[in-house]
Amino acid sequence: EAAVTQSPRSKVAVTGGKVTLSCHQTNNHDYMYWYRQDTGHGLRLIHYSYVADSTEKGDIPDGYKASRPSQENFSLILELASLSQTAVYFCASSYRGPGQLYFGEGSKLTVL
Amino acid sequence: DAKTTQPDSMESTEGETVHLPCSHATISGNEYIYWYRQVPLQGPEYVTHGLQQNTTNSMAFLAIASDRKSSTLILPHVSLRDAAVYHCILRELATGGNNKLTFGQGTVLSVIP
C-alpha cells in the first residue's frame, strides 16, 4: 500500500513567521505535489517536482517555496506566513505517466 | 484548461446503485478522465480513470460516452462509507509525463441509511 506521510498534521503560526511543511513518501515515486484546500473548495496545485533537487511552479505558487532534497522528501516553505495562507495542505506522489496520485492525510495550517 | 461540470449534490439510499454524471464537452484527445473522492479531514482517494473505453474495478464502473464529452461514475450497492465528495478531473499528460490534476467543487454524495 502506497504511503505518503505529512508533518506536522496541524500547526498554528504567526503572521510573518516561517513555516515548513514536510512530506515523505516510501513508494519510490518520481513525482511529488503540494496542494492547498480552502474550506468548501477544491484542491489547488502549489508546486510539484518530478526529480530530486528540482521543483516546478503549479497554479498558485506565489508566497510559497518548495524543496525536494531527495526522491522521498518534499517540503513546502512559507517564508513569511500570511493570514490568507490559512488552509489545509495536501502532499501527493505518483509515478510518471497515467495512474493514480497517492495523497497524504493533510496538514492544517492556521495563521494568526 | 479543459473543465468539467458536475451536479453540486446527490442523495442515495444504502444498497442502491448511484450514477454520478460529469460533463467535459471540451476534452482533448490526450486527456484522461479521473475520479477521486474525498471525505472530511482526509486526502483525496483515487477511484478510477479511463481514456476511451469503459473501465471497472472493485470500487466503481466508469462509463465514457463514445464522443468522450461526458462520463458517468457508477457506484453499485452504495454504503454509508461511500458518502464523500466525488471529483471528476481531466488529467493532461503533457510532454515529459507531468501529471497535473485540477480539482473543481465536485459532487457531494449523501447516503441515507
In short:
Chain A is built from no helices and 11 strands. With 112 residues, chain A is mainly beta.
What is the strand content of chain B?
over 45%
Rg of chain B, alpha carbons: 14 Å
Helix content of chain B: under 10%
**CA(first)-CA(last) distance of chain A:** 37 Å
Radius of gyration of chain A: 13 Å
User: For the residues shown, what is the average pLDDT of chain A?
Assistant: 93
Structural class of chain B: mainly beta
Could you say which structural class the secondary elements and strand pairing of chain A correspond to? mainly beta
What's the N-to-C terminus distance of chain B? 39 Å
Characterise this structure:
- Chain A has 112 residues and is an all-beta fold.
- Chain A has no helices and 11 strands.
- In chain A, the strands form 2 sheets. In chain A, strands 2, 4, 5, 6, 9, 10 and 11 form a 7-stranded mixed β-sheet that branches. Chain A has a 4-stranded antiparallel β-sheet with strand order 1-3-8-7, with no helix packed on it.
- In chain A, a hairpin with a 7-residue loop joins β9 and β10 (102-103).
- Chain A is globular.
- The N and C termini of chain A lie far apart (37 Å).
- The mean pLDDT of chain A is 93.
- Chain B is mostly beta strands and 113 residues long.
- In chain B, the strands form 2 sheets. In chain B, strands 1, 3, 4, 8, 9 and 10 form a 6-stranded mixed β-sheet that branches.
- In chain B, a hairpin with a 5-residue loop joins β6 and β7 (70-75).
- Chain B is globular and about 40 Å long.
- The N and C termini of chain B lie far apart (39 Å).
- The chains are: A mainly beta (112), B mainly beta (113).
- Chain A binds chain B through residues 4, 31, 33, 35, 41-45, 48, 50, 56, 58-59, 90, 92, 94, 96-106, and chain B through 32, 34, 36, 41-46, 49, 51, 87, 91, 93, 96-106.
